[in-house]
Amino acid sequence: MTEIAKIRTFLIAVMITCLAASLMIFPKEALEASTRGLTMWWDVVFPSLLPFFIVSELLIGFGVVSLLGTFLEPLMRPIFRVPGVGGFVWAMGLASGYPAGAKLTARMRQEKKLTKIEAERLVSFTNSSNPLFIFGAIAVGFFQNAALGLLLALSHYLGNICVGILMRFHGSEEERFLRQQRKPQDRSLNHAMSIIYEERKKDGRPLGKLLGDAVQSSVRTLLMVGGFIILFSVLNRILTLIGFTDFLAVLFSIILSFFQLPNELSIPLISGLFEITLGAQLASQVTEATLFQQVVVTSFFLAFCGFSVQAQVASILAETDIRFKPFFVARIFHGFFAAIISVILWPYVYTENSSRGNISSVIPAFLSNGSSGLGTTLWHWLHMYGSLFTLIMLIIFIFLMAKRGLERAEP
Fold this sequence. Notes:
Blueprint: H1 2-25, H2 27-61, H3 64-80, H4 85-96, H5 100-110, H6 116-126, H7 131-142, H8 147-167, H9 176-181, H10 189-203, H11 207-241, H12 244-258, H13 266-274, H14 276-284, H15 291-304, H16 306-317, H17 325-349, E1 350-352, E2 362-364, H18 373-409
Antiparallel strand pairs: 1-2
Helix pairs in contact: 2-11, 2-18, 3-4, 3-10, 4-5, 5-6, 6-8, 6-17, 7-8, 7-18, 8-15, 8-17, 11-16, 11-18, 12-13, 13-14, 13-15, 14-15, 15-17
Domain Nucleoside transporter/FeoB GTPase Gate: 44-141, 222-318
InterPro entries: Gate_dom, Spore_IM_YlbJ
Keywords: Membrane, Transmembrane, Transmembrane helix
């Protein structure tokens, strides 16, 4: 075992050295990729995730999550075999997107509201893309077709539900003893209100400090997320420049041919496995594939969520005893579930009047009056004002950190 660890350490050191050398060989391309990742984080990721993170921290601090958990227990426990608080994590993860589900699951584990096995089940199906990204960035931004958002969203979220049902069997043997000792919960309103009071009393922080801590914790997490987005944007570009992506494309073309998909989708698929945004952009530009084939591949790597997001999740879970392996396996299942569901739902969302190969012949069934809907409006709002919101919140974060530093420095 020690020899294996030594070999793994050596290989990692070699890969990091090669990455450093590549950055020196391709400085211009690395800078462009880094800027692209930073722009995505600054304009979209930060302003879209921060409000959800802050509100989540406040809800946890005031005990509202425990209240919701009491009433959601009859739904979450039989279907997914997780406590009722998992319903809150699921809803917030769906609304805010990656990696909110992982962050909230880790927080619930730290609060002892989940067992280790329950946390591993929960994180496997609560880490999903938000509707704004699916409808705004992918459907409208890349495919320029708002109706595709409905198909991608349905396949993505229904696939997540399938993963949750599948993962309910995870760790059954390990938690058998805990299940036998679980006590029935009192779900009366009076008991729920007493839970809120006890949770708030246990927290003890005044509103001002609770809000400040929520902002600081959320911004720290998003700074980490931004670092991973930039890193994998650069890594994806470097792998393309050195020809490693083309080498993998040969292998992936064999897999795609098995599913009767064109080889030209191999590069977008590989890029999407590393970073979703670039993969979706490349998939939308493959003229050799039909729109149906583009959607199937996009559904797969959107559900797989990319190594960039998985690295973010791994970093968050490392602060707890939650294992990363079940999450990674669940992402593979989610990818196949989403792709299969997109195939099943395709005839009910689109009608093809002529040949499969002509993308222009595909008529949206849910696009009315050319309207792009609320998702597109919010997406354009983010691009217009997202950077300003990010700047303001970072200034507030620096002010709070400076204030806390001065308080600690005082005798």
